[in-house]
Every structure is written in structure tokens, then in C-alpha cells.
Amino acid sequence: MRGRLRERLKGVIPPESLSLVPRSYDIIGSRGKAVAIIEIPEELRPYEAEIAEAIMELHRSVKSVLAKESGRAGDYRLRRLRLIAGDPDTEVIHKEAGCLFKLDPMKVYFSPREATERGRIASKVAEGERILVMFSGVGPYPIRIAKLRGDVDITAVELNPDAHNYCVENIHLNRVEDKVHPILGDVRDVCPRLEGGFDRIVMPLPLGAYRFLDLAIPLLGEGGILHFYHWAREPSLFEEAERLISEAADRFDREAEIIDRIKVSQYSPRVWKVRVDARIL
User: Fold this and answer.
1) pLDDT for residue 76
2) CA 247 – CA 60 distance, rounded (Å)
3) Are 2 and 24 in contact (CB under 8 A)?
4) Most buried of 23, 69, 146, 178, CB within 10 angstroms?
5) Which residues of the chain have pLDDT under 50?
6) What is the pLDDT of residues 31-88, one digit of tens each?
7) What CATH number matches the domain at 2-90, 3.10.560.10, 3.30.300.110, 3.30.710.10, 3.30.870.10?
8) How far is CA 70 from the centre of its chain?
9) Contact 25, 59 (CB under 8 A)
10) Phi and psi of 212, rounded to 5°?
């Protein structure tokens, strides 16, 4: 249906500008209430109201349309968003794989496009694991894991107070209070106070996660699994990430065995978000 946006806008905006209409946009929420987030080129600014109206006609659940005003930046990984149509209350409950995530995209980072990746990580977890999720946001990784596995103990660390508060609420919404333990704070301060021996650590921060490898490696037990995310440029998508992991392991007299490499999503024509999994020995 999203591919029909250009079709809906024929006769509304000039034909020569139609090709500039984005082919994709994000929808966060549910059938009751959702928010659409779209990147509108400068040339289409005069028609943004018409674009927003067309999106809301195509998706009756969308009550607000937000335009991207910047890339993700700052410690909270937020982008500036501008309301171009609809309800200024942009808090929604997003449904994903049987989980509920309450959030406001104006205040927190959340990508609906990574649902498949979250499912892949959850499926790798075995019963009885003790897991650390760094940069946990509103809780999608820990909650997806906790809903899939009956016997897990997950620590979720997040710096953004708004995201942490939503995570706490989402833990209750999904009834996983006994499995997920949220901590508000900077991983630099929190992780050194945690008891080591984690079976698995997830680092879903592609930009700059390498700066925190020295916190993650010592917390993994013998044979523990590290899920490391990184921005990478073609043609060598995994080489730098593997080197960063290996060098970090060496600093602690540990060995990193690379066990998986995944292209998660494409950021630009030659740049990808990748995941490298390593067993730390």
C-alpha cells in the first residue's frame, strides 16, 4: 500500500515532482492509532500537507504525520521530527510479534523496520540464559526475548529517561516483570557495577558501539555470545567489525570466535547496518 502514495498524489503535485515522493515511510502504532514518519525532500515542502493527507487516506489508523528534520544524533539517538498533519499527541502503542510497545517517536528511538532482526536475536537465545541488553531503548530486544523464552534473566540499560520510563511500562504491559530488569543510566557507569558471567550481550547501537566493547567483553562468561552492531561500507562489510571485536578481546586476554555475520539493513547506497556475532573464549 505504501507504494501507492505516488499514485494517490497524481494530479495533486506537479508530474515532474512526483518521482521525488519517497517510496517508503515508517508507520509506528496499531490499528487504533498510528504515526507515520516520512522524509520529505526540500522540493516537496510546498506539498507536504497534501502528502500527509494522502498518507492518512491510505492508512486510516494514522492520526499524525511527522517529517524527518535531521539524522539521528546525540546521546539519545534521536532525530528531530516535525508534525505536518494530524494529532499533536504522538504517543502510540506499537504491536510486534505479540508484544506491545508504548512509545512517543518524538521522544525516543524506535525502528519498526528492525522487527525481523529482533526476532532473529530472540530465536538464538536458549532457556536459562542471563542476558545484558545495552542501549535498550523502550525495551524491544529484552521484551521480545522474554516473551519467547520462559526462563531468562535480562538486564536492560538505557540512558534516555523517557525511553527507560517507556521500557518500565512496556515490561508491565507484556507481563515480563520477572524476567526483564531495567536500569536507567549510562552504560559506562552501570556496567562496571554489574556482576559478570553473562551468557549473551546485545549491543544494538550501530554508530559508535565499538567504544563500549571494553565494557561488554569482561562481563561475558567463558563462551558467552556478543551481538555487535556496526555501520559498514561496501565492499568489506564485516572486516572492520570483526577486527574491533578481536582487538577488544585481546585487551582482556580473551579470544573472539566469529560465529555469524548478518546484513541487517541498508542505510545508504553503499552503507549497511551489520551485525557480527562472536563467542568470547
Assistant:
1) 73
2) 51
3) yes
4) 146
5) 1
6) 999 999 999 999 999 999 999 999 999 999 999 999 998 777 677 778 899 999 999 9
7) 3.30.300.110
8) 17
9) no
10) -115, 5
Q: Where do the structural domains in the chain lie, given as residue ranges?
A: 2-90, 110-280
Strand 198-203: give its sheet, edge to edge. Answer: 180-184, 153-158, 130-134, 198-203, 220-233, 271-280, 256-268
Q: Which three cell numbers stand for residue 59?
A: 492508512
CA angle 226, 199, 245 (to 5 degrees): 20
> One fold for both 2-90 and 110-280?
no
| pLDDT, position 3 | 61
Does the pTM surpass 0.85? The reply is yes
Phi, psi of 255 (to 5 degrees): -120, 140
Closest CA to 21 of 8, 36, 34: 8
Q: What is the pLDDT of residue 119?
A: 97
208/185 Cα distance (integer angstroms): 17
Q: What are the backbone angles phi and psi of residue 263, rounded to the nearest 5°? A: -85, 115
Helix (H) or strand (E) holding 100: strand 99-103
pLDDT attached to residue 207: 83
| Residue 46 backbone phi and psi in degrees, to 5 | -65, -15
Rounded-to-integer distance, Cα 136 and Cα 160, Å: 10
C-alpha 49, offset from chain centre: 28
The reported pLDDT for the residue numbered 78 is 83
d(CA 45, CA 217): 47
User: What backbone phi and psi angles, to 5 degrees, belong to 229?
Assistant: -105, 150
What pLDDT does 71 receive?
75
Q: Can you name the CATH fold of 110-280?
A: Rossmann fold (3.40.50)
